[in-house]
């Protein structure tokens, strides 16, 4: 979320430890749920960028709250 617009390989690098297939599948699901926007540019080599939609951005406070709760309630 803090990176704004990100290309696939950049995202894979930021996340680390995720396979191409898993990341691709997750992005397709997030796009289908309208949480992520995929922008494809008709050029060679192909260029695809991903960004959060407004709907996706609306989840940030909820996810932040869940992380905060998790940190406070670790055993």
From TrEMBL:
InterPro entries linked: HTH_HxlR (IPR002577), WH-like_DNA-bd_sf (IPR036388), WH_DNA-bd_sf (IPR036390)
GO MF term set: DNA binding
Keywords: DNA-binding, Transcription, Transcription regulation
Tagged with keyword Calcium: no
Pfam annotation, one family: HxlR
Domain (HTH hxlR-type) ranges: 1-75
Protein name listed in UniProt: HTH hxlR-type domain-containing protein
Lineage: Bacteria, Bacillati, Bacillota, Clostridia, Lachnospirales
């Amino acid at each position: 979320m803090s990176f704004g617009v990100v290309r696939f390989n950049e995202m894979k690098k930021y996340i680390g430890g995720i396979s191409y297939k898993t990341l691709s599948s997750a992005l397709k699901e997030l796009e289908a749920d309208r949480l992520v926007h995929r922008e494809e540019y008709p050029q060679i080599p192909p260029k695809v960028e991903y960004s959060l939609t407004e709907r996706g951005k609306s989840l940030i406070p909820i996810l932040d709250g869940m992380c905060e709760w998790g940190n406070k309630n670790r055993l």
